[in-house]
Inverse folding.
């Protein structure tokens, strides 16, 4: 018997009920049943993004949506500020450079969250900055940047937009786009949305749509204005993965039924339980200062070869977790608790941490992590 | 009871056995089982493309792969020749223009196939042309361009590449990339490959890879060199839709088991049967001169409102077919017979044409189309 557990920060586990939607006969993108599904999905996405703007649907990974943000909001030679505190912050810089955007970097130690005052100071010093690129949650480090504070700051600059990569945040942590004045928020389907990879989404504020109308970087497949025009007619210029859109409809119904407020509370509690468990085991978190609620990134204890941790998770328990990337390779392991995750999933991953670390010679008291998690999880959700 | 038939030129019907692959638990893109699937898929794609080059896998629609071709093979201000004989020829021109490529158009009446001598003459006249963009099958008109002859011609120009949109041809018609000297061939998953939309593929010749190394148009998500480097390690820089890749593995096994030669013969016969049926009903084909084997585009008979044909197909029989696009709106209807299509599917679509046209007042003899199709389909495949 092989029972799998997928606790990676994307792709994440998908409920069997939603997977079965994918096995239904393929709908044509212009038949009535699909148009009905798309209408409902457009509405559900606005709920999820907490916006009144149209949420643009792309057949792409999250990186495609990141590129769409750059290509639609900037013109060649313009200047952008990139919060670089992990692999995905670096990705913003790389995309900007590919498009000949002048990048001003705000470098952080990996694991740290940006100090909003530093962004403000940079914007004050350099009025030519036209966009600020940041992650709501930096998936490589588990740090949550204070995008709410950044929204407040960037709002004061009429010619500058705040672009938020919400890939591992949206649907797990509160990210009310309109209320916080975020100019662009994007996400991929395979994180907190309980879907397989294959769709990406991006919504723009009115300020951002105005920039898009003027920005001259080349784009075609990712031309958001063209897609918006079609979506508003329940159409799309390119063939969408229709089964995934149908499954998305089901996932959005689940999210609505639970209610966003409840979804965020659930993730908060799962995260708090995981953090409490790791601390109870004497482990320390990489993003101690501003940990995200969607994944917990744990430092590999001294004397243990980091790469062995995910390997043992798989070899002994068929649990997929991942280690660190780039400069964090071998130094951390990452436990994702976003999307289709409940109390017992967290207890599973915590007890597996105990099993694996014990096997690697780490001194621990059986059940110390699980007990700490239970104490948090036993508290009522409200 | 609602029994659906999907005879649109994409998305096309997917076998239930392949749909069920999509309902299996999501694999992580770096776990052994997925890497094994990807290894097999890479090999199967080379078989399908009839190439020894790496076939690049993109999470995108076919248009994404078209954009990848432009962005990886050209530099700003360079000149390209576009064969414009339908909606997708126009799309090549639009993408080139979005990237500030100077477009030389070879305009054709919609439904015509390009005369290779015209391409040769244009290349001779204009040595600055760096790429020729064409469709193997123009999905909007059903015309098949003679890309084999174009391969012969472009081969003589060391600084010019031939880029073939194989979206509704690859897997239905013989398109041996290496043997015919095609420099780039691309396709989407939702046509002859028996898969839902969500994946696109593009392969480059050695000549094209050399151009890609020098071409300077901006690209990031579609940077084919970067993706190739990772794919060669059974990795990918961006999260692939893992369930679709697993399903692709199954589809490629089906194609291999049938054998490409047999697959092409099957499509040829289904197409011949459809064409014979339409002629027997007194209807005429738009692409009379060089009809493709993947879809048949039929002129709407005089006196009949074209838009009513697909509508009646759906309303009475739950069959999805599509009409014409842009300048062909209301003037044609399109019957696709690519991918998961057999003898009885063709008889179904032909008899539905009879039912629908009769209802619209078109004079016909019951069964005349079906009989003509049967006569073709009764012939042995070899």
């Amino acid at each position: 018997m092989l029972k799998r557990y997928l606790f990676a920060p994307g792709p994440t586990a998908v409920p069997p009920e939603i997977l079965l939607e994918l096995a239904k006969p393929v709908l044509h993108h212009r038949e009535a049943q699909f148009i009905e599904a798309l209408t409902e999905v457009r509405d559900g996405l606005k709920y999820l993004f907490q916006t009144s703007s149209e949420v643009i649907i792309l057949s792409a990974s999250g990186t495609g949506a990141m590129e769409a943000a750059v290509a639609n909001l900037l013109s060649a030679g313009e200047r952008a500020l990139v919060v670089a505190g992990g692999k995905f912050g670096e990705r913003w810089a790389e995309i900007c450079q590919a498009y000949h955007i002048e990048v001003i970097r705000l470098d952080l130690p990996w694991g740290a969250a940006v100090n909003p005052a530093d962004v403000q100071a940079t914007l004050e010093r350099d009025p030519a900055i036209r966009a600020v690129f940041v992650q709501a949650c930096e998936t490589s480090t588990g740090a949550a940047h204070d995008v709410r504070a950044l929204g407040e700051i960037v709002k004061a600059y009429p010619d500058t937009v705040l672009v938020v990569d919400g890939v591992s945040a949206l649907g797990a942590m509160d990210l009310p786009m309109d209320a916080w004045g975020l100019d662009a928020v994007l996400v991929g389907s395979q994180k907190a949305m309980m879907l397989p990879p294959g769709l990406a989404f991006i919504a723009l504020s009115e300020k951002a749509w105005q920039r898009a109308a003027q920005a001259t970087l080349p784009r075609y497949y990712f031309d958001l204005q063209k897609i918006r025009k079609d979506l508003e007619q329940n159409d799309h210029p390119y063939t969408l993965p229709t089964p995934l859109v149908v499954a998305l409809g089901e996932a959005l119904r689940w999210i609505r039924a639970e209610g966003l407020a409840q979804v965020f509370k659930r993730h908060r509690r799962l995260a708090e339980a995981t953090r409490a468990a790791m601390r109870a085991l004497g482990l320390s978190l990489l993003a101690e200062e501003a940990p995200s609620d969607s994944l917990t990134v744990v430092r590999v204890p001294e004397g243990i070869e980091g790469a062995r941790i995910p390997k043992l998770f798989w070899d002994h328990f068929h649990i997929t977790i991942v280690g660190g990337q780039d400069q964090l390779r071998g130094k951390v392991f990452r436990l994702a608790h976003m999307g289709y995750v409940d109390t017992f999933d967290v207890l599973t991953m915590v007890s597996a941490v105990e099993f694996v670390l014990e096997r690697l010679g780490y001194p621990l008291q059986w059940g110390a992590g699980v007990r700490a998690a239970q104490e948090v999880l036993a508290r009522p959700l409200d």
Remarks:
- Chain A touches chain B through 57 residues (CB under 8 Å).
